[in-house]
Amino acid sequence: MNEELDSQLSAMFDDELAPGECELLARRLSRDEQLKARWGRYAVIGAAIRSERGVRLNAALAGRVSAVILAEPALAAAHGAHRAAVRWWQPLAGAAVAVGVALVSVLWLRAQVPFAGAPRNAHLTATASVPAAAVVAAAAAGAPDSYVVPRAPAVRAMVPSTELANYVVAHSVFSSPVARRNLLSAFMTSESGTAAEEPPDEPQGNVH
Amino acid sequence: MSADASDLSLVRRVQRGDKGAFDALVLKYQHKLVKLVMRYVRNPAEAEDIAQEAFIKAYRALPQFRGDSAFYTWLYRIAINTAKNAVVSRDRSPIEYDLDRNNDESYDMQGRMKDSETPEGLVLTEEIRSTVNAAIDALPEDLRTAIVLRELEGLSYEEIAAAMACPVGTVRSRIFRAREAIDRRLREVFEGGLGRAEELG
User: pTM for this structure?
Assistant: First the structure.
């Protein structure tokens, strides 16, 4: 036996051989029974050094596994057959998925079409702030076409302006004239702005 | 050097239909796998049966192995699942291996009482063990240290080189020479049968 080859085998057993060399040696190891027996004894040496209690060092386990594997189909062939089977049903599965998607699309589109008896634009008014039920009822009663102006959200001043003015005047004794003027000016500005933004109390309804 | 390159090269060969490469993987991991399974079942014969089943399952599942994890990690996972299933199917609770490890003598005795192995098999295992130990004792200091650090401590060649203050190439050579020296004596036991270890001294 070539000493260099055995040295490589020992290194490969320890996962210390370069991948390229591993490839070549794996090829030889799988075919050379003598090399394989040596590889097996390296494993026995390791198990004996580690004193693996209860583990039988003369076990025929490897031989038994090998016998079972020998009766099995080779993986490449088995895998190839599996892939061929997959290839056979793949187009069918693809077609089934496509038909399913088309069916769902058709059903979804049909669900979007309004009832035959309902006015065409009834669904448009339902998007506004008026309750949908009221819109549908109005449409059913033959009410004219309408649209709804969405109500703007109410903007509230953070502090009631009268209370703030009273507060500023009552405490003006303790504040400097400049600060007092600035505060009053800011207050006036904010009050006029707030008043402009204040929405009317009447909610805006349907505009005909 | 990439870890697991050796296993991966064998695995790739098996995946391409080379059954002989799987033998090498079984030879390499059989003892470790049986030891692992013995955490769940104490009887060595039963542990070997479960390990065998795990190897066969691994072989059949090998087309799905893509090398994302190390081969032995993947194999160990299969073995643990197989062992757990075997324990459940036999309606037993798992036995913790560590419980009796503190008392080696009692562990050996219990294991042997449940063992269905023949006395010759037990004697042969002991003979192999004593042959290896005797061969290690007879090794020069540097070879003995290298092989023990590798097999017992699981150090890489680089770590051993650092520990022994020598190049990695020297470590590789020392481990190889140690294995060769042990293997020479071991071969005689395997080929000669029982009693060879005593003859060899």
Answer: 0.62
